[in-house]
Specification:
With 314 residues, the chain is of the alpha/beta class. It is 34% helix and 18% strand. It binds NADP nicotinamide-adenine-dinucleotide phosphate. NADP nicotinamide-adenine-dinucleotide phosphate binds next to helix 6.
C-alpha cells in the first residue's frame, strides 16, 4: 500500500507546488500531497511529513505522526513547536548547503579583510586613501559554532590562508583549527579574533550569547559576520560597540525580525552591511534528493534518520 506523505508548509504556493511535484516524481511508492489536499480520513495514516515553517495546528491533526523531515537546515522554530510532542525532527543536512555557506563565509570575510566597505565609504567622499594591507596569515577568523556549516567554512578559510579558531560545545579535532569550549574558552578566543563568524543554532543557551559583555572580549577593531540567527547577538549592545569603534564592521544576514523593519537603526549605520537572509538557501535539487532518500529509507526499513536533540535544542 502507498504511504501518505503530506507537505506541510507556510510558503509561496508556487514553491509548495514545486516541492510536491518533485517529491512525487522521486517517491513513486508514496502518495505525496499538499496538506490542504489531504483527506480527513487520511490524517491518522500519516507517519512522516515533509515540513517548512508548518502551521502547528495542521501538524497536530496528524495524530500518528512519528517524525518530520525539514527542508531547511535551521530548525529553531520547529524545536519550539515540537518540544514534548514525541515527534522527531530530522533537519536537512546537505553537502551542497555546506558548500554554499562556506562560499558565503569566504566572500564576506574577504569583504571585511580587504576593507571593501571602507573603500565604498571613501568613494562617496571622493577620498583617495590607501588602507593598510594585512596578509590573511596574520588574521584570525573565529567561528561561534563548528557544526556542519562552521566546519565546512573553517576549512575554506584555511585553504585561503587565514588562521582559524572555533568555539563549540565539545572540543574539536579539525586540522589547523584551534578549538575552544566553555565560557573561558569563548573569552580567550574572542580576545585574539579579527573577524568573528556566527554559525550556531539559536537555543535557550545561545540567545544573546553575544551581548555587551561578551562582545567586549573581542580585539579592538574586530569585525562580525552573523549568518546564524538574529537573536544570537543583542542588537542594541552590538550597536553600542560599533558606535564606539570597538567593533569596526558587522555583516548581518539574519535579524530578530525579518524582513528588517524600515524603522531599524541598523539600515543607516555605515558600520553595518545588511543582507536579506541570503547567505545559504536550500538548494532544491540536492535537498529534494536527500529528502526523498530519507523517506525511502523509512518506507523500506522503518529507519528514522538522525534527529534533532529536542532537549539541547539542536
Ligand atoms: P550543527 O551542525 O547542529 O552545529 C551547531 C554547532 O553549534 C556545533 O558545533 C555545536 O557544538 C555548537 N553549539 C550549539 N549550542 C552550543 C552552545 N550552547 N555552546 C557552544 N556551542 C554550541 O548546525 P549547522 O548545520 O552548522 O547550522 C548552524 C546554524 O546556522 C543553524 O542552526 C541555523 O540557525 C543557521 N543557518 C543559517 C542559514 C542562513 O541562511 N543564514 C542557513 C542555514 C543555517 P557541538 O559540536 O559540540 O555540538
Amino acid at each position: 500500500m502507498k504511504s501518505i506523505v503530506p507537505f506541510v508548509a507556510k510558503l509561496e504556493k508556487s514553491e509548495i507546488d514545486k516541492w510536491v511535484k518533485v517529491l512525487k516524481k522521486k517517491l513513486k511508492g508514496a502518495r505525496v500531497v499538499k496538506f490542504s489536499d489531504l483527506k480527513k480520513s487520511e490524517y491518522s495514516k500519516v507517519e512522516v511529513a515533509v515540513v517548512a515553517n508548518p502551521n502547528p495546528s495542521e501538524v497536530e491533526k496528524l495524530v500518528n505522526l512519528k517524525w518530520v523531515q525539514s527542508i531547511w537546515v535551521g530548525v529553531e522554530k520547529l524545536v519550539q513547536n515540537f518540544k514534548g510532542s514525541g515527534v522527531k525532527i530530522v533537519r536537512l543536512v546537505d553537502p551542497e548547503m555546506n558548500r554554499t555557506m562556506a562560499e558565503a563565509v569566504l566572500s564576506w570575510v574577504l569583504y571585511l579583510h580587504r576593507d571593501m566597505y571602507s573603500y565604498r565609504v571613501q568613494q562617496d567622499k571622493k577620498a583617495w586613501i590607501e588602507l593598510d594591507y594585512i596578509k590573511p596569515s596574520k588574521k584570525v577568523v573565529s567561528f561561534i559554532g563548528l557544526g556542519e556549516l562552521g566546519k565546512a567554512a573553517a576549512k575554506k578559510l584555511i585553504e585561503n590562508g587565514f588562521k582559524v579558531c572555533g568555539w563549540s560545545g565539545s572540543k574539536k579535532n579539525i586540522k589547523k583549527v584551534k578549538s575552544f569550549t566553555g565560557h573561558f574558552g569563548l573569552k580567550k578566543m574572542l580576545g585574539q579574533t579579527d573577524i568573528l563568524v556566527c554559525l550556531i543554532p539559536l537555543t535557550d543557551k545561545t540567545k544573546y550569547l553575544l551581548n555587551y559583555k561578551t562582545l567586549s572580549f573581542l580585539k579592538k577593531g574586530a569585525c562580525i559576520v552573523n549568518f546564524a540567527r538574529g537573536a544570537i547577538i543583542n542588537e542594541k549592545d552590538l550597536v553600542k560597540h560599533l558606535n564606539s569603534g570597538k567593533i569596526k564592521h558587522a555583516v548581518l544576514d539574519v535579524f530578530e525580525q525579518e524582513p528588517l523593519p524600515k524603522t531599524s537603526i541598523l539600515w543607516k549605520n555605515k558600520r553595518v552591511t545588511i543582507l536579506p537572509h541570503i547567505s545559504a538557501n536550500t538548494d532544491f535539487d540536492s535537498a529534494s534528493d536527500i529528502v526523498a532518500k530519507n523517506l525511502r529509507l523509512f518506507k523500506l526499513k522503518k529507519k528514522i534518520p538522525k534527529s534533532v536533540d529536542l532537549q539541547r535544542g539542536y
